[in-house]
Design goal:
Blueprint lengths: L3 E6 L4 H13 L2 E6 L16 E4 L2 E4 L1 H12 L9 H36 L5 H25 L9 H14 L2 H8 L2 H11 L2 H4 L8
Parallel strand pairs: 1-2
Antiparallel strand pairs: 1-3, 3-4
Helix pairs in contact: 1-2, 1-5, 3-4, 3-5, 4-6
Bound molecules: glutathione.
């Protein structure tokens, strides 16, 4: 039977897109069922999205979901086989999830979403406070990419699946766009990712 994933999440969510990209990479058909994180119909025990139904399983946590899809339906192609390369990919997935996503989301992405889509005044103070840390984080990623290509040295992998949506969310804010434009290596890596069919197929509607 052909696998199919039902992804309960919002259409403009970083981690919903991570799962969509993993499905595209594995050639699995997928449907995103609009579900807000804080809605009563969300089944995530910690009020996050996405929740995913696949192969009779109900999965949460994007690392577990993306690895499952890749292992069960893509021969593990997104997870480098060599131990060192796997560690590098895993390290960047963790950096994306533990440091970059919360920093970008709280400091820039949410203030702009609240302003653009919910009509709240732009929280300029919060944005200003976040900029030094975000700039340092971008500098760290840029330096890693300029040295030995970091996670890109082994071809498209799970690190790209997580890092791209996190960086793209940031890039869709004016300050994030400016910050990334100053980073040649990050900009080139993002442009390369955009040629990947799985990334192109999962573009957010709001992307310019
Ligand atoms: N650890 C979770 C994180 C998921 C997550 O933070 N999702 C965001 C949307 S991209 C969310 O649910 N935000 C709503 C909130 O925190 O209230 C995972 O990897 O799936």
């Amino acid at each position: 039977m052909t696998a199919q994933a039902r992804i309960f999440g919002t259409v403009i969510s970083t981690y919903t897109r991570v799962v969509e990209i993993a499905c595209e990479e594995a050639g699995i058909s997928h449907e995103t069922v609009p579900t807000a994180a804080r809605s009563p119909e969300n089944r995530h025990p910690f009020g996050k999205i996405p929740v995913v139904e696949i192969d009779g399983l109900e999965l949460i946590e994007s690392v577990a979901i993306a690895n499952y899809i890749d292992n069960a339906h893509n021969g593990g192609a997104l997870q480098p086989v060599a131990a060192a390369a796997r560690a590098i990919s895993d390290k960047w997935v963790a950096i994306a999830n533990n440091y970059l996503f919360p920093m970008f989301e709280n400091g820039l992405v949410m203030p702009w979403i609240m302003h653009r889509y919910a009509g709240f005044p732009l929280d300029r103070e919060r944005i200003e406070r976040s900029l030094p840390d975000i700039s340092r984080a971008l500098g760290f990623v840029e330096a890693a990419l300029s040295e030995k290509g970091a996670w890109t040295a082994n071809g498209f992998c799970m690190a790209d699946v997580f890092l791209y949506p996190v960086m793209r969310g940031l890039q869709m804010t004016p300050q994030g766009e400016m910050g990334i434009a100053q980073c040649d290596h990050i900009s080139r890596w993002m442009a390369d990712c955009e040629l990947r069919p799985s990334i192109a197929a999962t573009r957010w509607e709001s992307e310019p």
